[in-house]
Input
Amino acid sequence: MKSLTANSYQLFENLSTLLSTPQSLVSLLGRLYVAWVFWASGLTKIADFESTLFLFEYEYQVPLLPFTLAAYLATFGEIVFPILLSLGAASRFSALALSVVNVVAVMSLEDMPPAALNEHIIWGVILLHIVFWGAGKLSVDFIVKKKASRFD
Output
């Protein structure tokens, strides 16, 4: 019986090691996907900023901020933070900032369709993963940390 338990444990450990191998690649794909979503939204805002201002004034109900400031902040966030997130530079901060943009977007639109809400939830979960676990080995953060540890 002990042999069966030991063999099962070893099989589990081997499978766990095998599944850990592509972890950084999966993290990169998640970062690129979420960055692309927010980047595309930012480009849409820039393409017709008058419409963006109109939507922030009459459609979106952003709490605590004047609509003009909210429009500029959202556009800035959706352009700058996806670039950083894609590179894995300041990735935890970038993911946290995009999480705020994501939550405000959900709170600001009263009649959000369930499918759109589900997408925001998925983006939020991916962003939280990055906030808590970082960008992985395929990132600028990892390279900087590795180089900085040489000087310690």
About this structure: The chain has one domain: 25-150. Helices lie at 2-20, 23-47, 49-58, 67-87, 91-108, 114-133, 140-150. The radius of gyration is 20 Å.
